[in-house]
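Students often ask what a 'structure token' actually looks like in practice. Rather than answer in the abstract, let us consider GreA/GreB family elongation factor, a protein of 160 residues. Its sequence is given first.
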Amino acid sequence: MDKATLLQRIVTTLEHDMEVLRRAAQTAYEAATAEENIAENKYDTLGLEASYLATGQARRTAEIRQALQTYQQLVPRDYDPARGIQVGCLVTLEDEQGLRRRLFLGPEGAGLKIGEGEALVTVITPRAPLGQQLLGKRVDDEVRLVLAGVVQVQFIIDIV
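Now compare that with the structural description of the same chain:
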């Protein structure tokens, strides 16, 4: 998958996620303001709980909206070996057992998974420990992460 296709699929996924959350927030808001959910005593908290839920969903919708706007304005650039990995690079890593994974170093949207099987691309950001380590690296460099006390070594085998 090339970067232009990947970026379009990220935008499509974010648009879908935002619409789903918008509808969920609207449903929670309606539940919070429904006449049958008005508290009858101090132990009747259904309306209050729905209000908290609607607020959280609205906040998450705003975060996704911001990520969507960022991706809509992102211009895909070719990899520059002189600068190393930067935001917007599609990176292929290989671990010591030969397992490969593809990562897109994006400005937002950490955790998004685009594609399936060997075409799966995971979005990470420079705020993540792995994203921090990737910045400025080049093909054949290695990155080391300590997860649950175990050192994981991965090699950069391709950058687009």
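One point worth highlighting: Residues 3-33 form the longest helix (31 residues). Ask yourself how you might have guessed this from the sequence alone, and why that guess would often be unreliable.
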